[in-house]
Protein 1
Amino acid sequence: MRTLLLLALKNVRGAGLRTWLNVATLSFGFVTIVWMQGIYEGMMRQMVTAQIDTEYGGGQFWHKAFDPFDPLSFEDAHGEPGDALKKLVAEKKATPILLRTGAIFPNGRAQSVVLRGIEPTQEIVQIPGGVLLREGEALPGLIGKRMAEATGLKKGDTVTIRWRDVSGTFDATDVEVVEVMNIAVPGLDAGQLWLPLRTLRRLIGSAEATTLFVTEKGYVESHIEDPNFVWKNNDFLLSEERAIFESKKAFGYILYVILMAMGLLAVFDTQVLSIFRRRREIGTLMALGVTRSEVVGLFTLEGSLHGVLALFAGALWGIPILAHAAKIGIGLPKMSDNMGIAIGARLYASYAPQVLVVTLCVLLCSVVVVSFLPARRIAKMRPTDAIRGKG
Amino acid sequence: MKGLHVLLLILSLVHTSMGAELTATQILEKIDKNQVLDHAIVTAKMVIHGRAGTRTITSKSWSEGKDKSFSEYLSPAREKGKKMLKLGDKLWSYTPEPHDRTISISGHLLKQSVMGSDLSYEDFMNNDSMVSDYDAKLVGKEKIEGRDCYVLELTAKRDGVSYARRKIWVDTERFLPVQSDMMAKGGKLLKRALIRESMRVGSRWYPKSMHFKDMLSTGGGTEYHVESIDLKTSIPAQKFTKASLRK
């Protein structure tokens, strides 16, 4: 075995440029695939973290009529909680949010808006509600950067909003933008205006109205039974984001296949050419008493060594790049906001060890298989023909 | 003595013929008498002056009381064939192309804008009685659009009326609200409706040309012109069924 290994190493080294081209192609495929997986993993991790920190907390209690995909449902999706939920709020383990649809008129242009009422002093979600404690002539309002760009509003501007109260009567007032926040979750930013909860409740004419409660991070589901509110855990809340992420990941798989096909095709091609050109050597080895399976093994080993060398080469030039993607991250263009998932301004790659090991194993196994497939032909060769360069 | 009786009788007749001052409620009743229709078939043109340009939509509507209304868009080509049925606070919208589709929409859509105009579905299909919705106070007389008008301040009698307060200028002769300012609960002016031309329909006066303006936005408003109105032809009950949307 040791002799075979030394012989294979000698042959691989002797192949010169051909070997290094194969190694370069394979290592490019390896590093790119690991990098892409890291990017997807990082994207998913950032998205989940942002959603939990700013929106979902440890899960939510929804009003039974609430459908986040149907703004028309917001009109009826509010109610008064039972004692158990009130206790949770009093213990600061949950915070109430009220959603209401309305219209905003920046520069006299009517736009739909979701009015979001939040307790300014809450610490459950990372929304800078404290700025809403400011008092002035106009009501204090908080918007995100995307909303600011879409409406042309900036800090200190005053804008008119219009809404309907619980009985359906129109009302309107002026709101002063007291802060423009930078928030990763587009759903909490685009088309959203944050107001103090008590103010919004007063505006709609319902003192206890709540659309949903966000529980603190790490909240252990305590099976609170409430006639108006139903529990939604994070598995449920994140299912949409995960579905978006999986669809994006599926596109990545196509790229993996293309990248690997390039590398594996190069190895396969090298193996076929090598067996054709080294028929005399194969015949001689057989004549000297090397078994067919040992010759097949030799050629498979030679091919597989490309994979091993590619791993080392990939590690050499790839690790700095992969580490850079994980530590410094990649700046995202503005248009990435339109992807509909919460990532932020920079994307940091994340490499899960088990995913890394499985990926590399699959890649190496693929190299072994494509090295072996052409080598099977050797088993059918007759030594006499092979020595004469036939077969 | 007899002469005095005759004089009093004459004075009384003169006072009656000159018209005793009407109360605010009586004025509203007279408006309702003009505007609240038992049933009507109206062909109208709506000109929407939006920020992106001007669009003209013609439609034909059949209405009965305040709860039943059926509308069909006649032009432009892209809107032609679209239909709407309102029964109480429910609304169905039918679109023939690209998919033959009827959508049932909750009552909230009634509060949304019709085709980007300054009118909500509620405004568009409204046939509510002013007397039943508002308490009125007569605050004076003014001349608006060349017409002598009573000025009335209205306050909603109950919750759920779209506009909590209104100020209307009512033609003293025709009893049509020449100008209506619709206000939010907090007093902000939200919408203004002007009757620019009115017409005789049988024994009543009816708006022929109106202008609606959302006062919070900077668009040019929406003109509404009644091209024909038929108050005599009875409408078959079948018209106000979902089946008629696909016909």
Note: Residues 21-233 of chain B form a domain with the outer membrane lipoprotein receptor (LolB), chain A fold (CATH 2.50.20.10).
Protein 2
Amino acid sequence: MPKVNKLIYIPAGLIIILMSFPFVWGFLLSFKDGIEIFTDPISLPRSFNFRLYIDTYKESHLVLLFKNSLIVTVLSVPLGMLFVFLSAFSIARLDQKIKWMSSFYYYLFLSGMCVNIIIILRSLYFITMYTGKNVAPLGLDSLYSLVPIYAAGGIPFGTLLYVSAMRSIPIEMEEAAIIDGCSLFGVMFRINFVLCMPVISALFIFSVLGVWNEFPVASMLLNNYHNYTLPLALAFFKSEFSRDYGSMLRAIIMILIPQLLFFIIFQKRIIDGVVTEGIKG
Amino acid sequence: MHIFAKWWIKQLLVVPTLILFLIYTLYPIIDSLMLAFSHKPPFKKPYFVGLDNFYGLFNDPVFIIALRNTTIVVIGSVLLIPLGLLLGLLLNVSFRGATAVKVISFAPNIVSPFLTGLVFFFIVDPGVGVLNGFLDKIGLHALAFKWIGGERLTPYTVTVLDSWKGLGGLGVFFYAALKMMPKDMFEAATIDGATSMQKFWKITIPMLKETFKFITVLTIIGGLGSYQTFYILTSGGPHHKSETLGSYMFYIMQSKGGDIGKTSAMALVMFILSMSAAILYLHLTRKRLDE
């Protein structure tokens, strides 16, 4: 067993300070009102006035924004994950008549990884516009239009993770199940799904965070403030509260806290997920 | 790979993903690429103009600035990767509170770059930020540069900020990679009398080659698309001095009379750069599908 060198606590402590300082500072700063921020930037706030928080909360319709982000996330993440799960199963496990089909699908989906969302932003706008003419809820300025786009965004990474995870399941398990009379769907869901659980939960968490924080597509497709998702509102705050830095900070902190809570609760899973992916990478 | 299933079921499983991919990823890319070679007057159909958009692009001083800024971010981010390795090494030592360090350093990674950008605004802004205020107070006024919003420092500041944000992720990634390394080599080296430094440079680093390659490519592709921090801190800087490829594209798209050929040409440039990084990675690793 390695002895713990007490010196290790110095860099550890430094790292903790380094990584948390901006948030701590932002938090402290958020209790200042607009004027105090300008006149005295580096001191601690005069008073911890929670009233300011309530004011900012009302001004920003935070609950509405939260609800919007929630709708988009709840719809797009499970949908995307389900689709990718099915196709990954086909790629990883099922032989195709034409031998190279599986590889073709695999690399096709994987190639999406080097597509930065900015590259296809404009096309997405017009696709959504045309779709909107036929299928209204999927058109512009609708939260639902974001759902297929986000689901599609999860395809490359999801395929990578799922296929590696499925490939690492020993084939004997599935063969045994089939011998016992399990149907295809039975194998798929009762064996594969359960055994891939760590990857699935890691992917779930990453997808949720990715969709929750997504900005470019949402900003392009949503116009009405009432339809905004949280990140949009953040960017909006910077111009809206352009001189009222206090309000901005309070809004940031209020948006930050649920995310941090989510993270702290699930952190073990998240970090284990990165560890798993690190092994695959 | 030999579960027997009816042919149509095999195809059916892939179909939903395929459709989604075709509509929302593949088609947009092709559309974008084609537009890069066309000119589209407002409300009329686009027509082919060959490389004209690219001439316009490379003659555009803002594009050159954007390219320069993006390059700085990409190279800077790659150079800062070793810091992630250091963090990973730190996390590898089991001490009380290691988990806390892991969690706290990973936290900024999961939050939107807008959030971290805005929070950093209050540290780094020459007017309102703590950094310069602090430097002034302790008399180091000379060091109180214009970290953002000035002439030249913005891309460097943003690189540091983005690397800060990603540090936890890198740390955990390297931590995982380090944990995976087989212990026997190290033991053999210790028996042979190797020092820690020798073990580090001759065993650890070479074994991390694959991990480094992977991380570097992801960092390059990520850096190419970097624009959110820039946008939040400076909205493109005084007179576009701190645009990146991404933010400039965004800017043109936002302005109503946007030159679509130009944005598409830029998109193509970004795409080619990303693809090159990916292809380089594939070539260097030459991974085969059935291992």
Note: Chain A has one domain: 47-280.
Protein 3
Amino acid sequence: MKKTYKIEVDCANCANLMEEAAKKTAGVKDCVVSFMTLKMKVEFEEGADPAAVMQEVRANCKKVEDDCEIFL
Amino acid sequence: MNKKQKNLLIRIIIAAVFFVPLYLISEDIVHVDMPGWALILLFLVPYLTVGYDILRKALLGIKNGKVFDECFLMTVATVGAIALGEYGEGVAVMLLYQVGELFQSYAVGKSRRNISELMDIRPDYANIESEDGTLERVDPDEVEAGSIIVVQPGEKVPIDGIVVEGASALNTAALTGESKPREVGVDDDVLSGSINMSGVLKIRTTAEFDESTASKILDLVENAASRKSKSENFISKFARVYTPFVCYAALALALVPPLFMLLTKVGMAGYASAGALWRDWILRACTFLVISCPCAVVISIPLSFFAGIGGASNQGILVKGSNYLETLSEVTTVAFDKTGTITKGNFEVTAVHHSSIDESKLLEYAALAECHSSHPISLSLKKAYGKHIDPKRVTELEEISGHGIVAKVDGTAVAVGNEKLMNRRGIAFHRCHHVGTIIHMAVAGEYAGHIVIADELKEHSREAMAQLRKAGVEKTVMLTGDAEAVAAAVAKEVGLTDYRAELLPQDKVACVEELLRECTGNKKLAFVGDGINDAPVLSRADIGIAMGALGSDAAIEAADIVLMDDDPIKIAKAIRISRKCLGIVKQNIAFALVVKAVCLVLGALGLANMWVAIIADVGVMILAVLNAIRCLFVKNL
């Protein structure tokens, strides 16, 4: 399952860091962050609960980039 | 500017106002008597004002085990400089770094808005007429397929549909890049995203909002940025390796040379004391760190692609991802499907030859004999006849597959078909030297002449090929199911370098594969089709281009690049846009890497101080961003 989320982040490298952090989160199969459109496209593992996984993703992203935001 | 940016701007101004007099004092240009510790404390005011968030992020980064980010680099470099007594430089670096950040954030935000405006086809509302005749504005999302909506002059058509009442001219420029208005009347299709210019239209919707053209195009362009190009992947990998590398290199620079000198006593003559030696090398290491911030390149590459894709979509060229833009720039061979790309795909009677009876009579016989067929050839015969056809006049109709039709029209025996049919019936015929499909006719057993039916070339086909050659395309090949003679004539007239004739649909894939094998190294092959029946070929080629695809889902699905109108000239334009965009990307990568490398070397040798380093860093970033924005300007390309 794929879902797209709006994000807010200030710099391009930070967006790359967010992408990496999200990819490493359990339950996320793949993730693409587009800094230009400020969107995060997440592909979830089979059977994962998107809402719960996204909380994790957000927490992990905050770790690498403290003032990023994902609008869930 | 948003709130965050305004905030940062105010902090920068306050810090700068504090910084300038302090700097003059510290450099002894203005002489003020004050103890050293007071000066440090005063310098901390602008430093913390402008850089507190950087320090905070650096600490958070260390806490979370993500050490090597830019905030960390900046913090170590500036704290190091201040600790070594270079207050002025330390604060200046932080100040200029933030100026760079502000500029970057502002420029990116602005170009993001500019590009979205270019693609502003999202309708905000739909009008639904209530029973008493008043109009009600509703969210287009809530309109069901089959509802009647009203579009007034000046409004955007929100949802795809068919006109049921009214006539108007539509501006489809946002969809196709074509500036000529399109006239529509009752029963015409209208696409969402076009702007109603003159009259009120009542439209019966044929799709829901999400399935409408405007929503689909927006979706496609917005998702384009998520298919990353090789350049973007290269840069993000590069940034991952580069930053830690520079950090360790800086550490080595701070430790290894002074230790070496102390142990071997080589080169110590240049330094007053061991302390001065350490100070010098640690400062060099700090300079090194300042140069190492990778953001200039990291930001400019996706920005270039995004601007390029935005500019192209404004011209009616939809690119489904940065990777496709990148591949398109390497295209040296373009293969075309004939019908619908080079030719219009509407067959027309172009001549009647050797007719023993009146030409219009001959056409009448042909049209009547073909009255039950819906083949494009039959349709063109009926169109050329132009009058009402009464099927009752036709009797004993027999269709001979692959040959033609034999029938009695008004009691007269008529045979309509190809050479094989004439041979089969033992009728002598004249060969035609004209290009096209030849329909031979026999009336009452006698040869009565033939009708030539040809597909018209598109107006711009010739010019399109010339422009492709100019754009650096070496080979243009036409693939067609037509006869050899027809293909050769079209190829010659349009100026193609090669053609393959008499292909069945499945042969086209094989042909493209053969052409692909000829494309070695960085050469790429593009296939251009009209999206009907050629989805497998579109996906097999390096780049599939579908044209005239507005509203055709299959084509939009299968192709990598979609030309919204069916003008072949847009192919060359798309290639030029991609070349410009890739050129800018390469310039930016090369420029940023060279400047950084030179600064790193100069910094290590002690020839560049922190001022040079930060100005190089911010300067490169600003120039790279400005250069990237050039990708947006493709209108006159």
Note: The CA atoms of residues 27 and 53 of chain A lie 6 Å apart.
Protein 4
Amino acid sequence: MNRQKICLLLLSVLVFLGQANAATLESTFFTRSDQTPPEEVTITGVVLDAKTAEPIIGAAVMLKADMARGVATDVNGKFTFTAPKDVSELEVSFLGYETQTVKVNKQRDLKVLLMPTSFEIEEMVITGMQRKKEEAFTGDYRRVQGEDIIKINPNNVLAALQAFDPSFRILDNNSAGSNPNALPEFRMKGDVQLGTGIDPGNMDIMLGGIANLPNMPLFMLDGFEVSLQRIMELEPERIKEVVILKDAAATAVYGSKASNGIIVFETKAPMPGKLNVIYSTNMGLTVPDLTDYNLMNAEQKLEAEWLAGFYNPNNPTQMNTYNRYKADVMRGVDTYWLSQALQTPLIQRHTLSLQGGATELRYNLSLSHNRNPGVMKKSGRNMTSFNFDLTYRTGKLNIVNSLNLGDNVGNNSPYGSFSQYTRVNPYYRMYDDEGKLIKILDVKNRGVGESSAIISNPLYNATLEHKDRQRSISFTENIMMEYRFLPTLRLSGNLGFIKTFANSEKFLSPNHTSFEIYKDIDLTKRGSYDKSIGEATTWNGNVSIDYNLQKREHTLTMFGRWDISSRVNNALALTAHGYPNEHMNDFLFGFDMPNRPTGGDSKTRSIGLIGQVSYMYATRYSVDLSLRTDLSSSFGADNRLAPFWSLGGRWNVDREKWFTRNDWISELSLRSSIGVTGSQNYSPYQAIQTYTFNHFMHPYVSSDVIGAELMALGNPNLGWSSTLEKSLGVNASFLKNRLHASFSMYDNYTDQLLVDFTAAPSVGFDSYIENAGAIKNTGYQFNVSLFLYENISERIQWIVSLNGANNRNRVEKISNSLEAYNRAALENKNAAPPMYVEGESTSRIFLVPSLGIDPATGQELYLNKDDQPTFIWSAADKRAVGDSNPDLHGNINSSFTYKNLSLSCSFMYEFGAQRYNNTLVEKIENADLAYNADARVLTERWSPDNREALYKAINIKGQSTNASTRFLQDYNEMRFSAISLSYRFEPGVHEFLNRLNIGSMTLSGHMNDIGRFSSIKQERGLDYPFARTFSCSLSIVFK
Amino acid sequence: MRYIHFPYTMLIVLLMLTASCSDWLDVRPDTEIKEEVLFSTEEGYKSALTGIYKRMAKQELYGGNMSFDFMEKLVQRYDNYNSWEVSNADRAKLYEYDKDDNARYSLATIWAEQYTTIANINNILKNLEEQGAEVLDATLFDIIKGEALGLRAFIYFDLLRLWGPVYSIDPGLKSLPWRDKLSSEQVPLMPAKDVIKHILADLDQAEELLQDDTLDGVVDHPFLQNRNLRMNKFAVKALKARVYLWSGDTSNAYRYANEVIETSGLSLSTDNKRDPSMTSEYLFGLYVYNMEEELKDIFPPSTSGLLTSTPAPSILYISIDNGRDVFEVGRLGVNDTRYKNQHGFLHANNRMLLRKYMAVSELSSFTKDRVPLIRLTEMYYIRGECGSLEEGVNDLNTVRKTRGIPSRFNLKADGSFSREMLIDELNKEYQKEFFGEGQWFFFLKRHNMETFHRCPLQQGMRDFYVMPIPKAEQEHGLGSRE
């Protein structure tokens, strides 16, 4: 219903605008003289890039005689200009191109070819704070164009970004699968910091707070820091380009925020013109991917239970149960539970934007709606956003204002966790004889002294009244002002304001199976409602000056910036229970609140000061020096951070006089940098001992105050951790520019790395923050792209690119306290081997070596410390047997264009790592057979008839197998992540566009997450299955 | 050239701006408080000490595991097994402390939680030393320090009673890491006899500091009310009696038990109908907020929970046969108030349910939500065990009389009455008196009893009195007994 309404609405808006387009455009206010005096003439024309023959959008076409009169070219590079009859010359200009004066004779239809000023100068690197000339930029970065992102994945910008740079990875979330409400986690540097999954229902996360997420990179959008949600809401069509900043020289200006990498997004500026109506849509299907599940069917499951000893032939009760199941199986009951909670939903996104304006004042108004249902029934995420951008640009003053409203609603499935469906035994029926869902399927006895398993029908709860929803609404206003006092001196200021409201609600009906235990006891406890609300306000502002001096061969740039930010958030969470009637599903109907309210309130404020000096000589040599100091309330008031700094240099070898560009090598530049960046995932402030009243808010009768307890064990001896980063890079083009290659290597030395160290329980706390010593990460990255075929005149191009990265880490030295710890561990025969050892990697996997299952006894045979076989598992026998870090990982991309048709595909690869395969342990050997399990339970378990088995004998509750190398497997993987085919319609070629008033149109089809070839067979998507996506996009620019 | 100076001037201005904002940056999260701020006020010390009692009252410790839960399951108190007959072998699984999930988990929890409490106590003591005298008046300083030391001794003693040796056999066994300051330092196990020394040293100091304390508290001083719910002077003395008895020093044990009986002003209670946990006998107990409500699934206050054919697995009931054996109904009759329906237990459907922690309607706010840790009866038992046979018989008869056992069953210290018989009677008394209080196991362990009522172990209990050091402790290179 809802979906149809929205489609209708969009359609009617389109129709209306189409008419408006035809009828009213002539009188829009951009054209300066709408009443053409008789002595004026109309000149039309097109402006094209002289090199590529691509139309130039937004080029200024002005009257040479009267520079106040002018128009800008439209999306097809065309312009219509009303000029005095005596017009003789027009001036055509565009940033990055040489300004051209065109003589106007009798000819009224012009074709203007603009030459790029120079191939290099158009290349600017946006760092989120500045634009820097690429030829002078000494940092390591990767730039990706918006249109390339759409080609890889039109539904998920961040997933697409992975294809372009191997250092940027979204971590596989094996439990959340393709849940549209799950938030991704990232890995930017080689070393994954300690971190736990992001809970999307966490109020701080819903409010856009990222401060406490250990691996979250910093996202910059058009010069402002934004939350992960905002990036996920961003429509891919709006993105102009994305820059991933990597080394010290590129990130030092961000100081302590740089530790997890910086990703800078820039959106497209509004197109000039009378009124451009742009509509784009993306629609498709997501299909659950269950190929990793290999469960038993009804007959196999019952057989497995028999073998495990659930049924004693001498026990009539047990045999009755068995015969009842058996009869059902014979009758053909074999329920495929997996598919019951799944759907193949239609995903869609619609974006409508109105853009236009003249050279000085331009606007963009856009509305976007994104419906993203998940593969579990009734789950999904809907995002709606509204943007209004206004830009004003004159010679000296430049103002950009942007306003955004976002509404983000996530619904979780009433069907619950997917794992319930993988566990239910297939010999149960879903419905009883009257066709009603059975509530409790079975109470399964596991035997003497063991609790029985109450198996409820997971489908039952889905029929009840249910609410599980999160919503956040944000309002963002950013204004950027820039004033050029002199051509060389610029002062600019930014001010940003974000207000976010969020709430989450979860209602469980009184009939929900989780309340079964209260059935006889208490009606006032059945039914529950969790509700939380929160609000956050963020301010940030900065003032910067930019000074640019160019004298003959010397170019000097100085940049200074002062920035300040403040964030306040507070949240409240309440739980009530006792909802006797499931239709009384408002929080207010609750009987009482069993727990006191929880929530939080936090304020953070920070101030940063940045200085940067760059010098370039003769476009050949450049040097960059950056400095930053940070002050922040989260470091404590009197804790000033040591300044972060970086020094980078670049040598454009190809500009040397002695370098002759030849067919073999045409471009060559070298770059190197050194610098110190912050790399703390903990700050010493967190190690200050604090007390909390949180758990003891109730009275103690013999005291007149409430109780307080220690939060954690402090560590007063901690120092700031910082990383000395060194990097070296080469960029080169070979074979007449047909092969572009870049290679970089780095060496990052982190001193006083702070780690969350597990403590002996007698310390009184689970863990404490400890200085682990120093760790060195070294690695390399490469990116090669090859023009396999190129024919400019025929517009055929085939590019294949390969990128890859490798990272190794080594503990360089360990702190004294750790050394004492290690020594004690080595002396004690029961102690596990130490985690941090000098000269070793931190990603090693420690397991007890296994010799497999002893054919004679069915017991697992281990190898102990002294290389003697033993049946006894001991933590002390653990050895470093593998490494979870891959030797190489990266992507292979191919992009083929023939005229208006293009075909892209992308693969991801990873090899040389090891992983502990949990499926084998949890779903085979330790599987609790009251529930369904992997089919290998039946065939590959040890028994006197199957002595060469891989897994221990079958039993009821599952073996309590300890971790050993029996479950360690090599992890090599190749994923076919994307394929897309797109076609661009042009008015010149496709006549029907003119009839429909369409300027240009692109139609494309995509498939994402298509296939996966891995050396490890394990269940993926435990709580929510993974999915494949098939979608179609359409983008139309109306004239 | 004029303009070149401009950026520098700006930079200097910005630097000055930055330098003056440290106040603006000093914001603190509202839900926590820095240690140094907490301990800068009297209220902070009071809160930190109150926090210790609240911690101890958690279900993981004395509000569950250390009272009616794990400690009582160790001595096979309850009958809440699944429908059919339970074999001895099934019940004996618990004693495979390293393998059985329940035992392993409970022991690891007790170990970790007790040490977290100790860490909190150590931090109070550290702050008292460093700045306490400036913040607190002398009375409060002595009370807080005395209580903290007494509590540390109390907890270490319970750790020692679980993880330490049967003291009479192997007092040199390495038992526990003794941590008296908050740090992540590696501390190896300390032999039991040294732990006893440290405990006694703490208690001596506590006794000294609390010498002016009374059980009545101080009028109009809201922090010094209900002293029996705090580590008061008599709790310290009673604990000393316990510790001395454990370490075999019977004369000191006698002395302290006697002193408590004579001077505490408490008397044995006869009413466990309206006061099932006998709060009027508390030398030391804990207040557990909303306890009866929280434990409703374990000790439901109505008989309906017992009447169904298979009561919910959470209900810790015993069968009537078991109850009759424990309270020797066949020999001593049904008048023992610790057994009687609506007194010690709720009887229904041939099952009995302990009333000590039950939300019964007779409870007043002075008797509800409390867990006993040391009761006066134990002092009678200790004095009785350490004195002469006559005194022992006297003390036992005194207790039995208040519990409703007719005087015709009184014990007599005639020629046929031996010390073994006294210990045997004491054993039965501990079993009856401390039902659901976690003390019986310690009596069995102290006497290295070979077996006990319903002991499921064929080989006897002697190999199972010493708990294994938790794995997590060992994996950190600690916890070696050698």
Note: Chain A is about 10% helix and 45% strand.
